[in-house]
Amino acid sequence: MKQRVLGAGGPTVSSLGLGCMGMSFAYGARDDAESGRTLLRALDLGVTHFDTADMYGFGHNEELVGRVLGARRDEFVLATKFANRMDPDSGRRWVDSSGAWAREACDASLARLGTDHIDLYYMHRRNPETPIEETVGAMKELVEAGKVRWIGLSEVSPATLRAAHAVHPINAVQMEYSLFTRFVEDEMLATCRELGVALVAYSPVGRGILTGTVNSSEDLAADDFRRTVPRFTGDAFDANMKLVDEVRAVGTAIGRTPAQVALAWLLAQGDDVLPIPGTKRVKYLEENCAADDIELSAEQLSRLSEAFSGEAVQGERYAPAGMTTVGH
To answer: Residue 168: pLDDT above 90?
Structure first.
């Protein structure tokens, strides 16, 4: 597996990481046995960047990662996140990016993960009523205490990144980025590069739509959150599936799958872009990792970029409630 640096002064990790959310949350039934095999296979394939969060299964995913990978803790960079909260009785969700919660949540994550430090600790979402200086100030204290090595932000605005970076160096910003979601190219990517911040790209295959394996919303489990995502419903889904044909055509020409082409396109956007495709199955993990050695031609890259430019993609990337929590 090729290597990339996770922000200025940060650790060197595999060019492709592993997003662990789907093992515990959002994409249908859990299968801890298969997820465990996937985590271990990832290490054996050279993946050294694992991404989880306290809200993925509301603790389950951190416990799973810690239990399965604990004996090999020194072989990888571990990232987790805080700030998304839910009341277990009422089901009410909210964003808490306060300094007090950052400290409390960090200790809880360390316990679930079974480790004495988190390599990369993210603010998962930002409550705009909490000054970013307060949040990052508390995260800085966690670094000074040895509980965290590097800090990151997720789904923030360029202005928030600048303000945060003035308090303590930010190593990574995690944003949705793929052929289907390219808003980071407007300003965020340039801001990251100016400040020496890595851009960690989640949902790099468009929540599965770029794999060519989702042909209808009926293909999704009843509890799959994508059923609530505008991109996956109605006319928007039909229009978006036509775009996938372009990815499939490039893949056919080079003997690769649509998912591999989508990941290769993203890897070609810069050495400071680090995709973390998520899966809970070994076969998809192996397929994704094989994208590491693909080099698309300039013509192929241009063809894909142009096909997904402008207003080509239909529908928002989250339901309305989800969209209110991003971009702050």
So the answer is: yes
